[in-house]
Amino acid sequence: MSQLAIIGGTGLTALDGLTIDEKRTVTTPYGMPSSELLFGNFHGKSVVFLPRHGRGHTVAPHKINYRANISALHQVGVEKIIAVAAVGGIQVDLPPGALAVPDQIIDYTYGREQSFYSDNFSPDKHIDFTYPYDEALRQALLKAAIALNITVHDGGTYGATQGPRLETAAEITRMAQDGCAMVGMTGMPEAYLARELNISYASCALMVNWAAGLSDKLITMAEIEQTLAGGMKQVKQVLARLIQMQ
Ligand code: HPA
Known about the structure:
By secondary structure, the chain is of the alpha/beta class. The chain has one domain (3-245): Rossmann fold (3-Layer(aba) Sandwich). It has helices at 66-75, 135-147, 169-178, 190-196, 221-245, and strands at 3-8, 18-24, 37-42, 45-51, 78-89, 99-101, 104-107, 153-154, 157-160, 180-184, 200-210. Helix 2 packs across helix 5 (221-245). The longest helix is centred in the C-terminal third of the chain and has 25 residues, at 221-245. The radius of gyration is 17 Å and the shape is globular. The model has no long low-confidence stretch (mean pLDDT 94). Hypoxanthine binds next to strand 5, strand 10 and strand 11.
């Protein structure tokens, strides 16, 4: 079985159920990843876990060293990544608490290091990204959720914003017009960097709030945390089932 990694986001900085065998500090030509890599056993299978925002959630989305994170996972032989993401729901059928496995991305971020080849570019490094997520891994996530009777939305466009601020209502109106189903701050360049290194990558997205302007309330961390607690339980169940099915 090829080595699988889970990148945990907001609400998933620790993966309970993961028996940690080793914490490994990995250095990369791009600097240090968000934390040590945690090697362990999750429901009987070996996994590598990396908390995207660091172990104490101290790294802001626009400050994450995405290249170091993906490079470190590549160095230790990871061939598949499941990225867990807490996002805002834009599409009407994606309310807080809904789970989705997105199938497209629009990147609104700026100033982030987008490529491993920035300083040694050549024409063959314009890499196909038509379908940003790995379809087999997407299907595996969907299958795991269905096996558990957990409702999951198949597809949708993930709009990646710069953060750390949340969006304005007008920005969300524009993103909805662009076709975004959900909005998060960390999906890019993470997905593309995985593609550059030929690592299969899919995302399990949990809606934790209605995106800005889509409900009659302002977005509060209290609302997000409440949804996160219940939602991440489901995400962990899906991950466990997916890993057992690998
Ligand atoms: N916008 C951007 N990122 C997010 C949101 C949001 O509304 N909710 C959780 N992550």
